Amino acid sequence: MRARVAAAAALLGACGADAPAPERTDLNPADAVSGYTFLTPETQALQDDDFANPGFLWVDQGRALFASTDGVSASCASCHEAPGLAAAAPTHPKIDAASGDLVNLEGRINLCRARYQDAEPLPYESEALLSLTAYVASLSRGAPMSVVVDGAAQASYAMGRDYFFTRRGQLNLACSQCHDDNWGRKLRGDTISQGHGNGFPAYRLEWQGLGSLHRRFQDCDAGVRAAPLDAGSDTYVALELYLAARSEGLAMETPAVRR
Amino acid sequence: MTTVATPRIDRRALLKTGAGALFISSIPIPASAAPEDMQAAVKETFGDGPIQEGRVALSIPPISENGFSVPIEIEVDSPMTEADHVRRIAVFSPRNPVSTLINFELGPRAGRAHVSTRIRLAGTQAVLVVAEMSDGSLWSGAAETVVTLAACVVL
Amino acid sequence: MSAIRLSVPATARAGEVIELKALIQHEMESGFRRGSRGEIIPRDIITDFECRYNGETVFRASLFPGVAANPFLTFHTVATESGVLEFRWTDQDGETWSETADITVT
């Protein structure tokens, strides 16, 4: 990791209303590093401890839900075997062949509920959906992120990329201005990460619980004083696809621990 | 994590003793080291008896990146026998709205007076740990941590 | 439902000091936070933890709002005989959660 010094003032000084649009240069895949890199040793140790990492409380709940027939006509486990499911998380968001829609892992779980389990969709950010998503994603720990961005996914990818490079909010900042241009630098007490989603759903110390990547997007949008979008919205799923492509090759860490 | 003691004494010298080393000192904590609320909480828990510094080693990170979850590890120097053991260990904060954070009760069945947990800290402060021995004597240790704020919360 | 995770060695030698770990899913709502409309979010915390070894209490803890969400505790006990370790959490309203683990002492 490059050692760089505080530059929050330089970052914020360049965000007036008539500031120029940011350069649309994608992160060099060779430079991609997980948010884990920017944590203190104590927080890294918490993620690395498979007993103490509190994210596993949700993984445990998800494992139980996966095998449960409560409220569903068939359990997830009646179709899926855990080893085969390890390919799911690193390849989402992906196009659902039947509908042609881009869906992330949460969306895929809800599609399964509608099509095969005769069940209502679980609300985004509900404990049940977070737990199931965390469990399924945890099966892929260590597997490299790898999504398809061409063909039917191309339009969504372009929309997500556009969101990433567009200034927004009262601070008039694009995602890229922190996470491409200034990662590794200090913003007050924090070190700015590259903004990868490879550990989500993640246990954030600030949340004191497990949360989705879309909840993290909402926090980022609120951070630049922009109106957050709905979790699960098409734009956030498209942004998730762009970020996943940007994280190509990074190992999955769910359930990661983050600040 | 690093073992440190009260900031009133030379912390650099203490750090040289190495992580995990037990720190034993006879230097008392000045009465002014902690706000009155915390002193009141200590008295409420352990009474008015004198508190000696020493026999209590605690580890907390020198920098906590979020005050919502700070790891703390405590080891009290005691043989943990029927005749001579630790009865109670309590953790106090001079800055939190409720001064007492957690209170452990143990005895000879513990075998070792070593506990850990994760606490909330409302800002940079020196956490105080007091241990009560089976003979009624009170011992203490303290360690400071700098709590940083998440940038995106305070911007 | 609250998930519980325990770490207890499956076997130990008689007289051995063993480390026990316990983690429970609980928000530990402090009573000092405010909601989006400025209202105080009521306190909702676990206040007591107890570990019993074949029915005998070997460790207790009283928890206050300064304990982090999803309380994590580690402590020790002397392995005396084969049997059951019971871990029990109680909240401010008296609701309890418990889990057990077996240990074989040789």
Written account of the structure:
The complex is a heterotrimer of chains A (259), B (155) and C (106). Chain A has helices at 8-13, 41-48, 55-67, 82-85, 105-116, 127-138, 154-165, 175-179, 213-223, 234-246; strands at residues 94-95, 102-103, 186-187, 190-191, 202-204, 209-211, 257-258. The two termini of chain A are 19 Å apart. In chain A, a hairpin with a 6-residue loop joins strand 1 and strand 2 (102-103). Chain A has a three-stranded mixed sheet. A two-stranded antiparallel sheet of chain A has the order 1-2. Chain A has a two-stranded antiparallel ribbon with strand order 3-4. The model of chain A is unreliable at 1-10 (pLDDT under 50). Chain A has 259 residues and is mainly alpha-helical. By secondary structure, chain B is mainly beta. Chain B contains three helices and ten strands, in the order βααβββββββββα. In chain B, a hairpin with a 4-residue loop joins strand 9 and strand 10 (138-147). In chain C, the strands form two sheets. A five-stranded mixed sheet of chain C has the order 2-8-7-4-5, with no helix packed on it. Chain C has a three-stranded antiparallel sheet with strand order 1-3-6, with no helix packed on it. Chains in contact: A-B, A-C, B-C. The interface between B and C is medium-sized, with 29 and 27 residues. Strand 7 (100-105) of chain B pairs antiparallel with strand 5 of chain C, so a sheet runs across the interface.
How are the SSEs ordered, and which strands pair?
The complex is a heterotrimer of chains A (259), B (155) and C (106).
Chain A: H1 8-13, H2 41-48, H3 55-67, H4 82-85, E1 94-95, E2 102-103, H5 105-116, H6 127-138, H7 154-165, H8 175-179, E3 186-187, E4 190-191, E5 202-204, E6 209-211, H9 213-223, H10 234-246, E7 257-258
Parallel strand pairs in A: 5-7
Antiparallel strand pairs in A: 1-2, 3-4, 5-6
Helix pairs in contact in A: 3-6, 5-6, 7-10
Chain B: E1 2-4, H1 11-15, H2 36-46, E2 51-53, E3 56-60, E4 63-64, E5 70-76, E6 86-92, E7 100-105, E8 114-119, E9 125-133, E10 138-147, H3 151-154
Parallel strand pairs in B: 2-10, 4-10
Antiparallel strand pairs in B: 1-3, 3-5, 5-8, 6-7, 6-9, 9-10
Chain C: E1 4-7, E2 11-12, E3 17-24, E4 46-53, E5 56-63, E6 72-78, E7 83-91, E8 96-105
Parallel strand pairs in C: 2-8
Antiparallel strand pairs in C: 1-3, 3-6, 4-5, 4-7, 7-8
